[in-house]
Design brief:
It is a single chain. Helix content is 72%, strand content 3%. The protein is built from 6 helices and 2 strands. The chain has a two-stranded antiparallel sheet. Helix 3 packs antiparallel against helix 6 (115-139) and helix 5 runs antiparallel to helix 6 (115-139). The radius of gyration is 16 Å and the shape is globular. It starts with a helix and ends with a helix.
Length: 142
C-alpha cells in the first residue's frame, strides 16, 4: 500500500471512529468528502488494474448516479463488483470500505444505502478512472 493510500485509509478510519463518539463534532460534509475521495482512489486503482473492464464499471457508476436509483440497483452493483473482482484484494477492500461508508442500518436491522452519498462515491469513482486515463495517456511515449 503506497503512502497516499495509507494516508487516506487512516483519515477514513479516524473519520468513522470520531463520527460515532458523543461530544465530538464532525463536519457534516465529511461523509461526502470521504465517499468522494474513496471513490476516486477506487476508480484510479480499478482502471489501473482492470483497464479492459472500465466500460462496465462506468456503466455501473452511471446507474448509481441515476436520480431514480433504487436500493436494489446498488445491491446489484455491489454483488457484481464483489463477484467480478473477488480475486483482487485491494479492490475488494476498497469496495467494502465504500459500501460500509454509504450503508445505513436503522433500528429494525434492515440495511439500506444512503443514496446521495452513493451518488457522491460514484462521482468520485468516475473521476478516479478519468484521472488514471489522463495520466496513462501522458505516460505514453510520443
Amino acid at each position: 500500500m503506497n503512502k497516499l493510500n495509507r494516508s487516506l485509509a487512516i483519515i477514513f478510519i479516524l473519520a468513522i471512529l470520531f463520527s460515532g463518539c458523543a461530544g465530538v463534532n464532525v463536519n457534516p460534509n465529511l461523509d461526502s468528502v470521504m465517499a468522494e475521495s474513496s471513490g476516486q482512489v477506487l476508480g484510479f486503482k480499478f482502471a489501473e488494474a482492470h483497464p479492459d473492464q472500465v466500460p462496465v464499471a462506468l456503466a455501473v457508476a452511471a446507474k448509481i448516479q441515476d436520480p431514480n436509483v433504487t436500493q436494489e440497483s446498488i445491491t446489484e452493483a455491489k454483488i457484481l463488483l464483489m463477484t467480478q473482482f473477488k480475486n483482487d484484494p485491494l479492490l475488494t477492500l476498497a469496495i467494502t470500505n465504500i459500501l460500509t461508508a454509504i450503508q445505513i442500518t436503522p433500528q429494525n436491522g434492515t440495511t439500506t444505502f444512503n443514496l446521495p452519498l452513493a451518488n457522491v462515491a460514484a462521482k468520485g469513482f468516475i473521476e478516479g478512472i478519468s484521472l488514471y486515463q489522463q495520466t496513462a495517456v501522458q505516460k505514453v511515449p510520443h
